[in-house]
Design brief:
transmembrane helix; single chain; EmrE-like; mainly alpha; flat; membrane
Length: 106
């Protein structure tokens, strides 16, 4: 169950990062509200997952999901640049996440 909570927390991290971008520095109400609600929910689920998972694993996977997900949203939705170097960096992050999952005792 901890891995499910962690995965949802990671997806919510992507949501709040994208909403924060759309909030234009918290000057737009609805994206600002989505940012804050998603942040709180993401932190709460991360906290619940840390009851079982090691700190290093949980935090690394959470930030990795958020980083790669935000990169994908930026490229696919916001039209940001997808250079070979940026794609390689995302692939390396995903590789690190897989290794963290495989090395976790929980």
């Amino acid at each position: 169950m901890a891995w499910i909570f962690l995965g949802i927390a990671g997806v919510l991290e992507i949501v709040w990062a994208a909403a924060m971008k759309q909030s234009h520095g918290f000057t737009r109400l609805m994206p600002s509200i989505v940012t804050i609600v998603a942040m709180i929910a993401s932190f709460a689920l991360l906290s619940v997952s840390m009851k079982t998972l090691p700190l290093g694993t949980a935090y690394t996977v959470w930030t990795g999901i958020g980083a790669v997900g935000a990169f994908l949203v930026g490229v696919l939705v916001l039209g940001e640049q997808a250079s070979a170097t940026r794609i390689a960096a995302a692939v390396l992050i995903v590789g690190g996440l897989v290794l963290m999952k495989l090395s976790s005792p929980a």
